[in-house]
Design goal:
The protein has about 160 residues and is α/β, with parallel strands linked by helices. Helix content is about 45%, strand content about 20%. It has helices at about 15-25, 40-50, 70-75, 95-100, 115-130, 135-150, and strands spanning about 1-5, 30-35, 55-65, 80-85, 110. The structure holds 5-O-phosphono-beta-D-ribofuranose (RP5). 5-O-phosphono-beta-D-ribofuranose binds next to strand 3. Pathway: Purine metabolism; IMP biosynthesis via de novo pathway; 5-amino-1-(5-phospho-D-ribosyl)imidazole-4-carboxylate from 5-amino-1-(5-phospho-D-ribosyl)imidazole (N5-CAIR route): step 2/2.
Length: about 160
């Protein structure tokens, strides 16, 4: 199964590249593209409605400002959607966060921290690892290394 990584603008890629790098590190198959809720609404509908049949298991959607992309995608697919609020210039990403996190009951978006693209990828990996023992082993190793690195840290 693939992860779909989408973002509202090319300008979001500086942040969303961290999700892509993490997926690559885990060897998870993914596709990435710009899909804008406001500038390409028809593409958004097509992307969300065909995602499952294209073999996507989890969608990571990043957007900033009036960040309607993750919620609108979630409204049109039963797949898990992880929303990444991208830090905006005007309001430091609080606008992005509030646009994404306050979904109505029944249409969930799992929202990360502002610019939390790495964790979005890790959530996607966790979901896919439920049905993929090799990926689950990689995730265990990642967490064990992270713990070991902290324990041996010298300051
Ligand atoms: C949002 O507007 C995008 O997700 C981006 O974070 C923000 C600014 O987009 P650009 O004007 O840089 O294309 O739709």
């Amino acid at each position: 199964m693939k992860v779909g990584v989408i973002m509202g603008s090319v300008s979001d890629y500086e942040v969303m590249a961290e999700a892509v790098a993490m997926l690559e590190a885990f060897g998870v198959d993914f596709e990435k593209r710009v899909v804008s809720a406001h500038r390409t609404p028809d593409l958004l509908c097509e992307y969300a409605k065909t995602a499952r049949e294209r073999g996507i298991g989890v969608i990571i959607a990043g957007a900033g400002g009036a960040a309607h992309l993750p919620g609108m995608v979630a409204s049109m697919t039963p797949l898990p959607v992880v929303g990444v609020p991208v830090k905006s210039r005007a309001l430091n990403g609080l606008d992005s966060l509030l646009s994404i996190v306050q979904m109505p009951a029944g249409v969930p978006v799992a929202t990360t921290a502002i610019n939390g693209a790495k964790n979005a990828a890790l959530i996607a990996v966790s979901i896919l690892a439920l049905q993929d023992a090799a990926l689950a082993a990689k995730l265990d190793a990642f967490r064990a290394k992270q713990t070991a690195d902290v324990l041996k840290a010298e300051i």
